[in-house]
Amino acid sequence: MDQAQKVNRLRDDAVKHIFEALLLNSHLQELDLGRNSIRDDAMEFIAEVILRNKFITKLSFEDNYFTDEAAEVFLKLLQKAEHLSMTEFTIHSNYISEIKLQQIDLFMRTHARELQKKKRENKRQRSQSNVGVGNDAREESKMSAGRQSSGSLSRSTSRISRGGSREASKV
Asked: Which segments carry the region annotation Disordered (predicted)?
């Protein structure tokens, strides 16, 4: 049997258990549920994960039985998810119109670019704050060293009086 003929045959009830586990997931980043028998009814289980899971970056439902109705729900969920870290969402080879597929693809491309931009900005801010912290630490070290040396000089000084004896005084 060649790769194109392999089918997993997971149905909506199995998807329910998988997506219940994904609500607690903090490690799984990629999930391919392609070539199954998943239908629109599974959306109730999938929806919460898309809205709440911050760790999945790639999700594939390629070659299932989703329709335009599910595609519309997917698109709304993807747009609504505040902490969406997903950069790839594949839903081709279902019963979804070309226009819905294009809308989802456009959203995902735009979202992926925004995530990359945020990532670069966060990296730049971290590097700038680390440089600032390093400079602040060096400045504090220099100032502290200066206080210690000037403090030790100002604590006690000695002078020789007119009579030749040494007098100690605090300054």
From this structure: 115-171
